[in-house]
TrEMBL record:
This is Acetylxylan esterase. It comes from Mucilaginibacter mali. Residues 239-390 form the 4-O-methyl-glucuronoyl methylesterase-like domain. Residues 1-23 form the signal peptide. Keywords: Hydrolase, Serine esterase, Signal. The keyword Ribosomal protein does not apply. InterPro entries: AB_hydrolase_fold, GCE-like_dom. The keyword Signal applies. One of its GO terms (molecular function) is carboxylic ester hydrolase activity.
Length: 439
């Protein structure tokens, strides 16, 4: 068996070309690579190429959308279907055999001001393999259901919560497709200080390990939830069937299924947070499942909030290389790798699907691979949909400099920290203020 090492845990906690800073200091930025997977990487604004974005308010039949009701009942479902068919793949619904086991019903921690709660969600009647654990911290003294920030994380729950030995021991995937115990190595961001800060606001904070739902490697469908839904004799997912990002998104919706049963949680006020590929995941989840009230998407980049038609940093050709992230998306999406302009969708349409709910796009000024400017331009192009609801986005404002929070607290918000890929500790000041305003 492959021996679990610190490098394996780091592999699960890091993005492909940049450290995902889960509550730690971001290392100094490295010079951007000129070539990835044998494909050139462009970092020159003058060479992004010419492109025309699909009009987010023009339906497939040519009809213009001029009111919020037409958006909600016609154009929005049309765009969701386009993303299902062309980028993320279709997902199954709520499984009939799903059930919940609240095995930690509320244990006082950190001096008693906070309680810990743990739940196992079983996706199938067979409880052996397909299941995930939810770790929650809630205010100990709350007279009413509390809002919740739900994070999907690269580390198992027992590695995320570094100050609480009472968290159930997590497992991780090894290279042989086996789950092995996860070491507690202090990579997590759920430290006592942050947990108490959130619960002191009267909010809850929770985390799910993405590997509980679907492994993050190219043959992961053999072991995760995708494989359970494959037809007899089927060996790989079909062209428009779900990839790993939709599988992780599906798991978040199953978490919401549980939260709707928990009387301590206000299920109408649940926000999502994810970093890098998990930033893509929470964006798609919020777009697909309107039960989530707000999304905090950190450095989601290509396949997330960055415009695909804009050839800057990582592009679809890089993602479509079979040695990299082909498995995260529907196979159909990779057919546009030769010409990004052929895709019927782009990131501004994904961002627009959150309207009228709240969305904060958080980026880093040295994270060129993820194209922070492309994420800003995506928000600008999604603004017309928020306008239908009388809600503010970036409007005509110029691209803000790093640490400029002038656009951060709009319903469609944007903030760029000074530094690289992921979430840095100072971002939490922005996140929590955003949640106070919109959650």
């Amino acid at each position: 068996m492959y021996r679990l090492t610190k490098s394996l845990l780091l592999f699960s906690a890091c993005a492909a070309l940049g450290h995902v800073a889960l509550g730690q200091n971001t290392p100094a930025a490295k010079p951007p690579a000129a070539m990835v997977a044998g494909i050139p990487v462009n970092y020159d604004e003058d060479k992004v190429g010419n492109y025309t974005l699909p009009d987010v308010l023009t339906m497939k039949n040519g009809q213009k959308v001029t009111d919020k009701q037409t958006w909600l009942t016609k154009r929005r479902p049309e765009i969701v279907k386009l993303f299902e068919e062309n980028q993320y793949g279709t997902m199954p619904g709520k499984p009939a055999g799903m059930r919940f086991n609240v095995f930690d019903k509320g244990t006082p921690v950190f001096g008693g001001g906070t309680i810990r709660k743990q739940v196992t969600v079983y996706f199938t009647k067979d409880t052996t393999d397909q299941k995930m654990d939810i770790l929650m911290y809630l205010p100990a003294k709350s007279a009413k259901p509390v809002p919740l920030l739900l994070m999907i994380s690269f580390s198992p729950n027992s590695s995320m919560s570094v100050d609480d030995p009472g968290v159930k021991q997590g497992t991780m995937w090894d290279k042989n497709g086996k789950k092995v115990p996860a070491p507690k190595m202090g990579l997590g961001s759920m430290k006592k200080e942050l947990i108490e800060r959130v619960t002191g606001m009267g909010y809850g904070i929770a985390t799910i390990y993405y590997g509980d739902i679907e492994p993050d490697f190219k043959t992961g469908y053999k072991y995760g939830i995708i494989g359970k839904y494959m037809k007899p004799g089927q060996t790989i997912p079909g062209d428009s069937e779900w990839g790993a990002i939709s599988a992780w998104s599906w798991g978040l919706s199953r978490a919401m299924d549980y939260l709707e049963t928990d009387k301590q949680i206000d299920a109408n006020r649940v926000a999502l947070h994810g970093v890098s590929r998990l930033g893509k995941t929470v964006l798609w989840t919020g777009a697909h499942d309107t039960r989530f009230k707000a999304v905090l998407a950190s450095c989601s980049g290509e396949g997330g909030a960055a415009l695909s038609r804009r050839n800057y940093g990582e592009n679809l050709a890089h993602m479509s290389d079979t040695s990299r992230y082909f498995y995260q998306f529907a196979a159909q999406w990779h057919k546009y790798a030769g010409d990004f302009n052929l895709s019927p969708v782009d990131a501004h349409m994904l961002v627009a699907l959150m309207a009228p709910r709240s969305l904060l796009l958080q980026t880093g000024d040295t994270d060129l691979w993820s194209d922070p400017h492309g994420e800003f331009l995506s928000a600008v192009s999604a603004q017309p949909v928020y306008n239908l609801f009388g809600l503010q986005g970036p409007g005509n404002a110029p691209w803000p400099a790093a640490k400029d929070a002038s656009l951060a607290y709009n319903p469609l918000g944007y903030f760029m920290h000074q530094g690289g890929h992921g979430t840095v500790p100072s971002d939490w000041d922005i996140y929590l203020e955003y949640l106070k305003k919109f959650l």
